[in-house]
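User: Please predict the structure of the protein below. I'd like the answer in structure-token form so I can feed it into my own downstream comparison script.

Assistant: Understood. Taking the following sequence of 184 residues as input:
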Amino acid sequence: AGPYPARLVRVIDLGTQTAEYQGETKHAHKVLLSWEIVDPETRLDDGSPYLISKRYTASLHEKAQLRRDLAAWRGQDFTADELRQFDLAKLLGRPLLLGVAHSTKGDRTFANVSSLARLPKGMTAAEPTEPILHFDLQAPNWHVFDQLGEKLKAQIASSPEYADARKAPPPSTSFDDMDDDIPL
């Protein structure tokens, strides 16, 4: 637990997910953000970096947790213009101070993202060692999808957006339309 320099290394579109809350079934479009803790002294026993993730409803509404966390990271809220043009993927690789809090359930302890903030002046964050991954169901890169863990792929595959993306025709690799491109 505590604050750590980190970098955003994954933005994964989970599609519309179903959840039960207080006896009610809810459907919401979700996104997963994952950060690599880049503090060289904070590593797993095998020397690999810690990755910590948080699932959000994919919304920038003023009451949405994603917007509140992003505003805290930026140090300011979004203007209406910024909201219209905002692309979450542009944050990939960006540094921040990541707050980690522990919670215990039974005999297990979980690390949870508790806060996002700008790095304090003078503090730096090393480059991530993990690959930077962006998966978007609106324009899926199936090579990136194949790099995800099995549980995460299964969760994405349960969304209606995944089914729609798999039905889309692959990009054309035909040269049939080139006849008129060659001068005679």
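That's the full token string. The mean pLDDT is 91.
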